[in-house]
Structures are given as structure tokens and as C-alpha cells.
Amino acid sequence: MAAERGSAFLLKIGSGGPTPTYATVAGLKTTQLTINGDAVAITNKDSGGWRELLSGAGVRSVSVAASGIFTGSSAEAQLRGLALGGGLAGYELSFESGERMQGRFLVSRLEYAGDFNGERNYTLGLESSGEVIAL
Known about the structure:
- By secondary structure, this protein is mainly β.
- The chain has one domain (6-134): Factor Xa Inhibitor.
- It is built from 1 helix and 8 strands.
- The longest helix is centred in the middle third of the chain and has 12 residues, at 74-85.
């Protein structure tokens, strides 16, 4: 597997239509993806002292964290509105290899910061709601 550039890891927000188009959330400098899976233990006396897990059980989720420079794009405005309203939206994560992931997410955190003589930056967190599919 070849190394991939972090700059090619993009977070995109959907337009909300029946056939959504996706706009890149501009100004991202760092992006992180975490896939979580809660295990269901089925360990018993016959497990020989080893933990056993039930395949396909438990709760799976995807978390996204990103930070960047505020640019005032329409995608950022849409994201801010969703954070204030607590709404879900479709998002797409794309990678340099051409792989993509799509799903509905809730903005769980949106923070703005800035220095007197510097740019305004933000940090955001997204939590999945429902299935996240790999394309």
C-alpha cells in the first residue's frame, strides 16, 4: 500500500437533495477518522480462559475530527447552521486512493478561535447516525 497525503483526505457536506452533491468543507488543515465498534463478549466456561466475541454484534460508529482556517464558505455556513440546529446531514469522506465513505452525521462540536493578529480557525467533531458505507 502506497503512502497517501493527508491533504487529499477531504471532508465534504451534502446538499441535502434526493441525489446530493457534495461540497468540500474549505480550509481544513487536519482531519481524523475513527471507526468504533463495541464488542459483545460471549465468554463462558468453555472458552478456555480466553475472551470470545460475537461477530457482527455490538454498536458501530464513525467519528470525524477536523480543524482548519475559517474561510466563510457556504459549506462552513451550512455546517454552522447544522451545529446550531442539531440537525443531521449527509457527509462524504474522500481519500487520495479514490476510496470514499458516506453517511449521515451530527455536528457534535464546533469551536472557533482566533488571535488578535492571526486568522480565525475552527475545530469540529462529527458523530455518525446510521450506517456509514464505503464506496
